[in-house]
Design goal:
Layout lengths: L5 H5 L14 H21 L4 E2 L8 E3 L5 E3 L6 E2 L11 E2 L20 E2 L1 H17 L14 H7 L5 H4 L8 H6 L4 H26 L1
Antiparallel strand pairs: 1-4, 2-3, 5-6
Helix pairs in contact: 2-3, 3-7
Keywords: ATP-binding, Cell membrane, Glycoprotein, Kinase, Leucine-rich repeat, Membrane, Nucleotide-binding, Phosphoprotein, Receptor, Repeat, Serine/threonine-protein kinase, Signal, Transferase, Transmembrane, Transmembrane helix
Organism: Nelumbo nucifera
EC number: 2.7.11.1
Length: 206
């Protein structure tokens, strides 16, 4: 894809890329919606439901319009439906490992997969997009992980854990072109909206 992967944008330095890449809050929100739509299709609209099993930033590709596409179905699994049209866990002859930090905990205890595993992956992906931190970040030790790190930060501290690039997003750059008398008011309104939406997105995963 012309704009690489979400991984390239969230962690450009890790790829040896010196180019400055920034995703605005709105771009991140649109990517999150694109990925959610892809999972909705895989789980509920395919003739045979598909569980991806390894959803992570490097498997989310961005096209020329920054539309997100879920890729790499190397360890995906097909599911059967019950007569009530609900999903059944599907046993696999090989263990599903996924990627450390993203794989659902139950995958380490059994060889059964379900759509719930993808939803867990999606929650971790969403938190990584909001904070700019990997689930394997060195600060996450003992009982601290990305999930409870964000849960504790709900309410007043949510801006403190948000990716600092939010402060330099494209919407703010556009505000810089307006008259000084209106600039502070617009910036305060933008920060309030980002705080509100970030708070709501974190609540989804907790």
């Amino acid at each position: 894809m012309s704009n690489g992967s979400l991984e390239d944008w969230l962690h450009p330095g890790d790829q040896g890329n010196t180019q400055s890449r920034k995703l605005s809050f709105l771009e991140r929100l649109n990517i999150a919606i694109d990925v959610a739509s892809a999972l909705q299709y895989l789980h509920h609209q395919c003739p045979t439901p598909i569980v991806h099993c390894d959803l992570k930033p490097s498997n989310v590709l961005l096209d020329n319009d920054m539309t997100a596409h879920v890729s790499d179905f190397g360890i995906s699994r097909l599911l059967s439906r019950s007569t009530k049209n609900s999903f059944q866990n599907q046993s696999s002859s090989t263990a599903i490992k996924g990627t450390i930090g993203y794989a659902a905990p139950e995958y380490g205890m059994s060889m059964k997969v379900s759509t719930h595993g993808d939803i867990y992956n999606y929650g971790i992906l969403l938190l990584e997009m909001l904070t700019g931190r990997r689930p394997t970040d060195e600060i996450f030790k003992d009982v601290l992980n990305l999930h409870n790190f964000c849960k504790v930060a709900l309410r007043e501290k949510v801006v403190e854990i948000a990716d600092p690039i939010f402060l330099y997003e494209k919407e703010a750059e556009q505000i810089g072109n307006v008259e000084a008398s209106c600039r502070n008011e617009l910036m305060n309104g933008l920060e309030h909206k980002i705080r509100e939406y970030t708070n709501n997105l974190i609540k989804i995963t907790t």
